[in-house]
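Re: Re: ligand-bound prediction request (bumping)

Still looking for help on this. To restate: I need the protein modeled with magnesium ion bound, output as structure tokens. Inputs repeated here so nobody has to scroll up.
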Amino acid sequence: MMIKGKTASEGYAVGKAIRLEKETIRAEKQGCDSIEACLKAFREALEKSREEIKTIQKQAEDRLGSEQAEIFGAHLEMLDDPEIRKQVEAMIENDQVTAAYAYQTITDQYIQMFEQMEDEYFRGRAADIKDIQQRVLAHLLGKEVKDLSLLEEDTIVVAKDLTPSDTAGLDLDKVKGFITESGGRTSHTAIIARALGLPAIVGANGALEAIEDNQRVFLNASDNEIVVDPGKKTLERARSLVREQEKERERLKAYADRKTKTMNGKGIPLYANIGSDKELDPVLENGAEGVGLFRTEFLFMDQPAMPDEERQIQAYERVFEKLSPVIVRTLDIGGDKDLPYLEQPKEANPFLGRRAIRLTLEEESLFQTQLRALLRAARNQRDVRIMFPMVATEKELDAALEALERARRSLDEEGYEYQTNIKVGIMIEIPAAALNARRLAEKVHFFSIGTNDLIQYLFAADRMNESVAYLYQPLDTTLLRLIKHVVDEAHAEQTEVGVCGEIAGDLDAALLLAGIGVDELSMSPASILRIREALARIDSTDLERLSDAVLAEHSPQTAKEIVQAFRRKHLEG
Ligand code: PEP
Ligand code: MG
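Reply:
Sorry for the wait, this slipped through. Here it is.
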């Protein structure tokens, strides 16, 4: 059987399917025949859960570091909370109900209580108790808990959607690819897959229905095909494609230690997009020349509450120590990126609402904590740059720059050491900002064009909505003309321009962006080496000619043909 979707990250994988369905386990009210047996079942379920959490904790420590593993220490404490235990046992004895029902009732009360608390930190605890509740109930009711941190063989994860916190617990040695039912190419699932260098198909309607657990799957993300239970011939072909893929990876390794230059020596640094310090391994392996977009909101998504200034400093330092330059973006919360512990009023159009800089300008303490942490974490670093997301107007930029000034002043007053010479830039991802590039450029050191949102707002096409995905064309000449406008205006003010939207990692688009005169490209690490190899084989003057030819066209189809002919001439054979 074959399923189609949308390629989010190219590549091939063969593995056993695991369906990640987030259904909540609930226990029915049932009487308990033998109180002794029910109490025993309760103790055993706690014991099994304890062992499981300990194993995950150990793995998280090995793979992700002790800070990420801390959360499991907190889970263990909650699991063994004597008060909860006493109340559950009393309920089994007094009400003569099953352990599952008693445990559910008591923990539900705690969940509710925490959910209603004012303090964000305590509200975050509700999610932890729920997590533990589900684990214990699964044991009591004989349901399987799918633990993606304890996989035994090559696995393809099939899910409705994956959040960054879902992927945080994955055993990345064993996960070979992702299939999700929702999401488009620029959804965050897609971005994560590319960050990890794993093949992924998103928008695969009906995948959860069609694929069973443990079924073998050939995930052919390069041709947008999912083959369930492949026959012998297909499997042979699949395995040979996986081997080819390995060979290409080997060939490209030669480029990992080089700087990116065109054949005639023009440097175009290729940076990596990251969401956390956990993604640094692929960034370093693929020889990124820096980080062009550090999405800090991802860093805080799997935390129970917003980390304070000191903890943020530690998280930033882990990245700043390893790479330079690092362009770190202030929080871009809103749209499809919610922080569970930050309460936001419901909006009819979140992508057009109180998002990113609009939100942080109103949440002074949230913003100040981050700005102070960034300035302090950068104190001994060569090149850390701060970037504000979703700036639409000069007024917003002025307000953001004032906020940064306030952060500096407060650090001065308190006598903290910090980076006094930090470069500041903005994302260009709203058409109004693109059109007003000249005046904005006067006030900042750099721009980074976020095409994921720029396309969304330029074409009025929701980046998450499958049915308008056809409007997402990296080679759209209207988009490219707007980018050229931004580049020319910025350069007139000696402001540098990068592109950090997903198109930067698309080889065809990367060639055009280089031709247009973009100064740097920032992408998923997995795309870097292929683009570095290609640029090394072409003269910058040929790239300019290519982009001129494409910009003179109006149809994306003709644009594609021009680029394909160019690639045949310069890169193939
Ligand atoms: C963009 O909009 O292109 C971008 C890089 O930001 P994000 O995908 O995080 O919105
Ligand atoms: Mg954006």
